[in-house]
Amino acid sequence: QNFRPGVADRLNVDAARLQAINPALVYASISGFGSEGPDRDRPAFDTVAQAASGFLRLLVNPQHPRVVGPAIADAMTGFYTALGILAALNERHITGKGRVVETSMFEAMCHFNLDDFTHLLSADQVMGPYSRPHVSQSYVFQCADGKWIALHMSSPPKFWENLAIAVGQPDMLSLPAFASREARIAHYDDVLGFLAPIFAARPRDAWTADLTRLEVPNSAVLDSAEVLASEQAKALGIEVSDPDGPHGTFRTIRFPLTFDGERMDSVAAPPVLGADDADVRRSIERPEHGIRRG
What is the third-level CATH fold of 131-221? Predict the structure, then answer.
């Protein structure tokens, strides 16, 4: 359940009551800010959790502040909770007992934002939205056809040497802004300004072909339709479908793990609201007394 603290108690679906009925129950509880502290009763949604954990600051352009990107806090809190549930289920094989697994969106996003906190706690550095792109030497360029390409150059000299060949600037690395990793980080905007007009002169597909041939780490910045149309996505079977879904063919993205060479290649469409109500009621009925009231 993902109620605010105290709501599950009022609804009589709290962990203590349910585990008294079934001690083997693994009970998961998600809240916005945790079960204690001054913010425990505050409402929270994805953007609130991103902001409160320091993560949103790393995504927002300071010159044009807007909330951007997907619901990362929602997804990551679910992932951490699932991890905790799996650990509790594994322990239950040994103990026969359940656990109460708790997390909050705030806690989940603080841990997901570990790189930011590591810089603070180990080097007394507060990161900003451009900190990681500068250090990792990552860039996005617009090409002649208006499409974007992304590069993550990192530190190995061979990537920069091959980039110089690809952009037709063999002497580029002798320029002061390109002379070393430290120089490229310090002169990030100069590097960007030098390369941007070069990339703007050719279409994206031409650049990706040349850069990939020269093993320069790059990718076209794709939208979701382009991803699914790509040969790599098709080769890996990224999209799976259920032709018998309740509203027609249901299409989604498969689970990303492979076990012993086997991966998910089919999916069952989720039921519509109320589809299993009758089965649930039947499962708790007592023919002689009607529905169990607990």
Answer: formyl-coa transferase, domain 3 (3.30.1540)
Cα distance between residue 81 and residue 202, in whole Å = 46
In degrees rounded to 5, what are phi and psi of residue 31? -130, 180
> One-letter amino acid identity for 154?
S
**How far is Cα 68 from Cα 59, in angstroms, rounded to an integer?**
7
Whether 7-123 and 131-221 share one fold: the answer is no
Q: Which amino acid is at 293?
A: R
Q: Which positions ≥6 away from 99 have C-beta within 8 Å?
A: 26, 27, 88, 91, 92
100 and 31 in contact (C-beta within 8 Å)? no
Given CA atoms 68, 69, 74, 78 in this order, what sign does their dihedral have? negative
Domain limits, the chain = 7-123, 131-221, 233-294
pLDDT in tens, 55-70: 999 999 999 999 999 9
What percent of the chain has a predicted confidence (pLDDT) above 90? Answer: 93
pTM of the model: 0.87
Hey, which residues does 240 pair with through a beta bridge?
A: 252
> Tens digits of per-residue pLDDT, 149-193?
999 999 899 999 999 999 999 999 999 999 999 999 999 999 999
pLDDT at 33: 97
Give me the CATH code for the 7-123 domain, please.
3.40.50.10540
Q: Could you give the CA distance from residue 105 to residue 116 in angstroms, rounded to a whole number?
A: 17
User: How do residues 221-232 score in pLDDT, each as one tens digit?
Assistant: 999 999 999 999
Residues contacting 42, CB < 8 A, separation 6+: 32, 33, 48
